[in-house]
Amino acid sequence: MRITRRELMVGGLAALSGGVGLRAFAATDMELGTARLTTLSDGNLVLPLDFLIGDLPRAQAIEALAQHGITGDTLTPPCNVTLYRDGTNTVLFDAGSGHAFMPSAGRLADALDAAGVSADEITHVLLTHAHPDHLWGVLDDFDDPVFVNATHMIGQAELDYWTDPATVDTIGTARASFAVGAARRLEAIADRLETFTGGQEVLPGILAHDTPGHTPGHISFEVRQDSKAVMVVGDAIGNGHLALAHPDWASGADQDAEQGIATRVRLLDQLATDGMAMVGFHLPGGGLGRVERADGAYRFVTEV
Question: Domains in the chain, ordered, with CATH?
């Protein structure tokens, strides 16, 4: 397995919620046999600290974050979209935020351009879950599909949840807009949308794993060629600090906190035991790395 890292510079200015600056689209490459996996930046989110720490003891959580250099009242997690090319299929894992979620995100089109890939070349869009930063990029500014030649795929349980009319009334006021936005976009791509279940090989060399908790039907994808593999975990491991140092702490980002803990603990143990590479949507350094055991917990290492 050979890994190269490069900075792809895209001309122009990217608007950030805290100001305006040049945006570098970091692409991290990993070869799996004859295939290539590339992570591309969709920008970043800007979130209140309480979105992450939820009901955790505030002082203890802030101290733990400070050990990772994170201070202040906001978080700016990166958004890493994964591109996979095996010579037959050109696959995106998640579609980014699109134009309608946050001004600091929705940069995938520029990142694809920098990688020399057009939206028309994408054959499949595999969705880990239907939160805005993963799904809303399937439509453009005119609410037309962006990836016009792609089959879109989502877990059956995830589709059922977001298209249930009751979800908007049960998800909570803070996420009600997520439910409305997901239902509208899933309806817009219904004619090109296929479903699957955990344990199914959705494409050659790509196996779906049930990893619920962050959302009810969240899916991670094991991508394998020969003896090399990488797990695209979406938001099942939602950050590079608390999720690894304290995997048994509840995350305010998870819709079902207890189920999220169980999934996270199981997945981290598997990744560390197997030495399998992983991509996390909100992990640092392009999101590609591996999990190591450290001090009774885990750490994320960007060298694979």
Answer: 3-301 (3.60.15.10)
